[in-house]
Every structure is written in structure tokens, then in C-alpha cells.
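Database export, one record per block. Field names are fixed; values are copied verbatim from the stored entry.
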Amino acid sequence: MEKAIEDIEELEKIEEEDEPMIGMSFDTDIEMFMYFKEYGKKKGFPVMRRSSRKDSDGILRNTRSKSTNILKPQPNIKTGCSARLGAGLGDDGKWTIRSLNLEHNHPLLTPTKSRLFRCNRSLSAHAKKKLDINNRAGIKLSKNYQSLVIEADGHENVTFIERDCRNHIQKERRLRLGDGDAAALQNYFMKVQAEDNRFFFSMQVDDEGRLKNIFWAEPKNREAYKEFGDVVTFDTTYLINKYDMPFAPFVGVNHHGHSILFGCGLISNEDIETFTWLFRTWLSRMSN
């Protein structure tokens, strides 16, 4: 009961605050978006951004043009709500609200609940770092998430949900390459394979098609394994480079006592799933 009274008092306080009006100006479109998003958070509805413009034929097309900017509730609510804010860039370089509809066809939430809308959730740098450290230590996601909740002194004080933590960890479970480097690596291996079809490589990607792990072996690696594969050592060594990725070589020893390579990989994570994929891939190349 006390909680309900607090929510009502909070909503009444918001009603007294200035609402968006036609003619309001902002220095940037980002400033305008953040203002309306914060207003939606207080009022209890989520906001998404859409840019559009009219072509010479008069047809309105969705683009990233700066001519028109429309802010509206996120479509995942699926209520057909027509509430929105439309603004344009004026000759003075400011963004001005030109059209406005604040009528919703669905119930609005309290700020306590609306903070969990997707547009209002975020992971801080501290939370991301702690998630990464705990994940590499083998701590389960649920406990990883709960540690952040306890640290914040309750669910009401965190700006994310467990799903956001899971998405972040999954995103990090891929090779930490720079933009375009994954494609360049694949193109290089394909070129080598075209020159010698005995060259082998295999790439593992996540559900979104992003590179997670890669293994490769030259023809001489397989031949060396046939001769000296009685003893195989495996270890992951962090290379001193800008990517800081685990390098995973399969190594043996020849009759001269020298180390020889049986294949190697770059992996995104040192867990059972990753090692299982790597070992099976290597074994398949070595005729099992």
C-alpha cells in the first residue's frame, strides 16, 4: 500500500513538470532525444528514434537524414500507439519540435518500472568489467548477476537485467579483433587454401555470425603429427599484442628434440565449450 502511494505521489510530481511543447528547441538531435527519452521514463513509456525525409517525388522514406527526426514509443509494445514527437533542423542550426502527440492507447507504467524498458537500460563500465572477470573465473551467469545486484544494494538500484548481462558476455565470447580484421583473416586463409588445398582452417561463429574461434593447420603440421604424434602438449598462452587473445598451439617433439607444431588456434574464451570445439576440430584434421 505504501509503495502504491509513493508511485502515485511520484506521478503527480511528474504531472507538475514541464511537458514537451511545439516550438521547443535543442542544440542537437541527441540532446532532444535524451530529453524525450527521460520524459518517457518518468511518464512510463519507452522511446525509439526514427529519422526520415521526403524525396523529390514526395514519398516519405526512412533514412538517417538530419532533415526530420521522429521520436515515438518502441514498436515492441505492439499496441499501435501513435504518440510521437517530430522535429526538424532549422536555419539557426537548432532542432525544433514541429509536431507532437502525447496521447497513448495503453497504460503507462511508474518510473520504478519504466526504468527497465530496453531504451532505459545500460551496463556501466564497472559492471562490464566485473562481468568479464567473473565469467573468465568460471562463475555462472546467475551468480555473476546477483553479485552486481548485491553490490548495488538491491534490484531497484541497478540499470540492467540479467538478460543484458548474458548478452554482454555472449558478445565478449568472440575474438577481440578490430573492425574488418575478422574478414581480412578469413580472406587470407581462403587465399592460402586456394594456393594449396591441403591447408585447413575452420572458423566458429556465434548466433549473430560474429567470429568466436578459429583453428588452422598447414600440410606440414599434419605430416609432422603422423611421424611424431605420440606425445602432444597443449597450452594457451596470452600473446603480448593489442588483441590480448589466447593463442592455442598443439605442439610435439621431433627426433632431434625440437618442438614442432601440429596446428594452432585463436580462441575467444577458455571454457569447456570452446576447448571441446577446438579439440574436435584438431582431431578431425588429424584423421581422428
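Remark 1: Residues 145 and 162 are 6 Å apart (CA to CA).
Remark 2: Residues 10-16, 54-67 have pLDDT under 50 and may be disordered.
End of record.
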